Amino acid sequence: MISPIRSLCFNDDHETFTIVLPSQYRVFRCDPFGMILGREMEEYSLGNVATYDGYRFLAITGSPSPPDFNSKCIKIFDHSTGQIKFEHQFNEHILTMKLGDGLVVINMHCRIEIWNTNTKELFSALDIGLNVHCPLCIAPDSKSIICSGQDDKKIWLCNNIREKNLAKRNCGVEEKGVSISLSAYNRNGTLFAIATFGGEKIYIFDAKMLNCIATLERGNPGDIIQSIDFSPNEYYIATCSKDAEVRVFDIRKNSRGANVLQQPVIKVKLPSVTMPRICWIKNDVIGVTSLDGDFHKITLKDETNFEVQTSPFLKRSD
């Protein structure tokens, strides 16, 4: 399948998700499923997307090749006013980005920049080591970020990101032959997860102490964990991989310590997915969407039974 979707993300209301097509973007409600917003942007060739406050604020980049609005450029729309809140052209291509309360975090080659979207001024900047996976996440309170560290086996946790001299601490993994590829905060910012490219484990860290409190068995080391999310009640964590396997872990069992590799309590095999994104919609409902143009709603009946409903939202093209 050839997908026209350029990028997609679940929004932080945990009820909707956004997709970007070559010259438009659309917002979908998860439950009941349906499209709730669409915007044509025929004058642009679009690329990456990030959202904040549900889908009120939407940041979008161009694709790499156009001479004007390209992947060095960003526009942030405020859907409550219909206006462009922030726009800027950077010196380097934007690899990934995150939106927060009055700020945008831009991940470029070996550099992070954090901009004030109200005053259009630079809050802070950070030089980082090379990591082609560009792990980046922002805390729910918009006060800290996790980004690439000195090398691809480490991350920086940066606090006070609105200050010029932000505070940074580092931690990492010791598995041989792996690089950190993904990071994700829980709903209250007290924990975060790290997944690696290759290896056997997913790591759960305490965000205050930076100590690893649990390790999770990630499955086939050749598979790639492409999305992680914590449940609203903080009891569970779910992952979705390139091989379309959703694995749910009970992290209340982390009292056994980081040296005990935890097994999933539920495994769900979905149809083929391309660049999947996962989101806990409710404590017993997980959503998965991907470039294939399907939304999968997984309802957990108990720790052994589940139900999967699939809603297509894009016409297929072979």
From TrEMBL:
<dbReference type="GO" id="GO:0034497">
    <property type="term" value="P:protein localization to phagophore assembly site"/>
</dbReference>
<dbReference type="InterPro" id="IPR036322">
    <property type="entry name" value="WD40_repeat_dom_sf"/>
</dbReference>
<dbReference type="GO" id="GO:0061723">
    <property type="term" value="P:glycophagy"/>
</dbReference>
<dbReference type="GO" id="GO:0032266">
    <property type="term" value="F:phosphatidylinositol-3-phosphate binding"/>
</dbReference>
<dbReference type="GO" id="GO:0080025">
    <property type="term" value="F:phosphatidylinositol-3,5-bisphosphate binding"/>
</dbReference>
<dbReference type="GO" id="GO:0034045">
    <property type="term" value="C:phagophore assembly site membrane"/>
</dbReference>
<dbReference type="InterPro" id="IPR001680">
    <property type="entry name" value="WD40_rpt"/>
</dbReference>
<dbReference type="InterPro" id="IPR048720">
    <property type="entry name" value="PROPPIN"/>
</dbReference>
<dbReference type="GO" id="GO:0005829">
    <property type="term" value="C:cytosol"/>
</dbReference>
<comment type="similarity">
    <text>Belongs to the WD repeat PROPPIN family.</text>
</comment>
<dbReference type="GO" id="GO:0030674">
    <property type="term" value="F:protein-macromolecule adaptor activity"/>
</dbReference>
<feature type="repeat" description="WD">
    <location>
        <begin position="225"/>
        <end position="259"/>
    </location>
</feature>
<keyword id="KW-0853">WD repeat</keyword>
<dbReference type="Pfam" id="PF00400">
    <property type="entry name" value="WD40"/>
</dbReference>
<keyword id="KW-0677">Repeat</keyword>
<dbReference type="GO" id="GO:0044804">
    <property type="term" value="P:nucleophagy"/>
</dbReference>
<dbReference type="InterPro" id="IPR015943">
    <property type="entry name" value="WD40/YVTN_repeat-like_dom_sf"/>
</dbReference>
<dbReference type="GO" id="GO:0000422">
    <property type="term" value="P:autophagy of mitochondrion"/>
</dbReference>
<dbReference type="GO" id="GO:0000425">
    <property type="term" value="P:pexophagy"/>
</dbReference>
<protein>
    <recommendedName>
        <fullName>Anaphase-promoting complex subunit 4 WD40 domain-containing protein</fullName>
    </recommendedName>
</protein>
